[in-house]
């Protein structure tokens, strides 16, 4: 189970296990995680955890939510990420890969994959998916992140009001597994997911 370590002014105040699918963080008492400081919004942010993936979302806070020094709207959390909420520093600690059906997990080597642009001025361009996260799109308009984990590749819509498509259907704000030949559509630019 993932957890967060909450510090203020360099002093660790509490460790919180992410035990619920969605946990809110804020100054009000009805939040799952209460941070008592006037610079924290009533309902500041939320962490959503689905299986082994956790996402941080800013809830239109006054002072913003930052991860590793960058202001975020929504962010896929990775082990060691540092979240800054007002005067608080929060470290995200992942729990690793969980065993399935009592079988101990064995490291799986994923086949290499790439994104290939199918139309427009960049047709034929390829982006190798060799990092844990690859972002596609334009910040503030439409961003899709492809996550590479031991379980496979998954796409998630992380930013922007324009809804991207996966095989003609709206791509959700939750990770969707990718299969060889799947087509992403970002504002009319079509890209195919290919396993090498």
UniProtKB/TrEMBL annotation:
Name the domain of life this protein comes from.
Bacteria
Entry's SUPFAM superfamilies?
SMAD/FHA domain
What the entry lists under Gene3D superfamilies is as follows: 2.60.200.20
Q: Which residues form the FHA domain?
A: 23-72
Q: Which Pfam families match?
A: FHA
Matches recorded under InterPro entries:
Cell_Proc_Reg/RNA_Proc (IPR050923), FHA_dom (IPR000253), SMAD_FHA_dom_sf (IPR008984)
Q: What is this protein called?
A: FHA domain-containing protein
Source organism of this protein record = Pseudoduganella dura
């Amino acid at each position: 189970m993932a957890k967060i370590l909450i510090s203020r002014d360099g002093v660790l105040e509490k460790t919180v296990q992410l035990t619920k699918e969605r946990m809110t963080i804020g100054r009000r008492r009805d939040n799952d995680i209460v941070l008592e400081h006037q610079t924290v919004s009533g309902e500041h942010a939320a962490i959503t955890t689905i299986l082994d993936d956790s996402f941080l979302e800013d809830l239109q806070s006054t002072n913003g939510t930052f991860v590793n020094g960058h202001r975020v709207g929504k962010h896929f959390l990775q082990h060691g990420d540092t979240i800054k909420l007002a005067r608080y520093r929060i470290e995200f600690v992942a729990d690793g890969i969980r065993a399935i059906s009592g079988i101990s997990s064995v490291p799986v080597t994923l086949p290499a994959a790439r994104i290939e642009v199918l139309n427009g001025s960049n047709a034929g361009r390829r982006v190798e998916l060799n990092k844990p996260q690859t972002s596609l799109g334009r910040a503030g308009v439409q961003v899709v992140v492809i996550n590479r984990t031991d379980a496979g590749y998954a796409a998630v819509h992380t930013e922007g009001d324009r809804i991207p498509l996966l095989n003609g259907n709206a791509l959700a704000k939750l990770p969707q597994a990718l299969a060889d030949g799947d087509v992403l559509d970002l504002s009319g630019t079509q890209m195919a997911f290919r396993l090498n």
